Amino acid sequence: MGEFHEIWIEQCEAARDIREAFGLQKALGYLIGEKLLNFLRAADEDPAFAGELPRIVAEIKRVFDRAEIETYLDNVQRVGALGHVASDEAYEEMREAGAIPEDPVEWAEEILLIERAKKLLLD
C-alpha cells in the first residue's frame, strides 16, 4: 500500500470478508460505523484524506446496496470498534464498570458524523 490515506482500499476488502464470515451488520458497523467515520475525522484535518472521500464513498456503495446502507444508518445505536464488536450486553457491562467514558460532546460529534455519512452515502 503506497499511501496511508488509501488504506480504505484494504478496509473495503476487509468489509467484504467480514460480511461473509460474520454477517451484514458486522460488516456495515466495521466499514461505515468505524472506518468511514474515522476517515471523515481525518479528512477534516488532512487534504489527502479529503481528496479520497469520493473514492471511498463510491467503493462503499459497491460493497453495500443503498437499502443496506440506509437501514444501517437509520438504526445505528453505537459506532466505533465497540459498535460492531461488542454485544449489547458486553457493551452495557463495560459501560457500567466505567470502562467506556460517557461523554455527551463525543456523542454529539458522532451524531454529526453519522449525518455527514448519510449525506455522502445516500444523496
Short description:
With 123 residues, the chain is mainly α. It is built from seven helices and no strands. It has one domain (4-122).
Give keywords.
123 residues; mainly alpha; 7 helices; 0% strand
Number of helices: 7
Distance between the termini: 30 Å
Helix content: over 70%
The run of helices and strands is HHHHHHH
Mean model confidence by pLDDT: 91
What count of structural domains? 1
Q: What overall form do the CA principal axes indicate?
A: globular
Structural category is mainly alpha
Poorly predicted residue ranges: none
Q: DSSP strand (E) fraction?
A: under 5%
Beta strand count: 0
Structure report:
The protein has one domain (4-122). It is globular. The protein is mainly alpha-helical and 123 residues long. It is built from seven helices and no strands. 79% of the residues lie in helices and 0% in strands. The termini are far apart. The mean pLDDT is 91.
Layout: helices, strands, pairs:
Layout lengths: L7 H15 L1 H22 L1 H17 L2 H10 L5 H5 L2 H9 L7 H19 L1
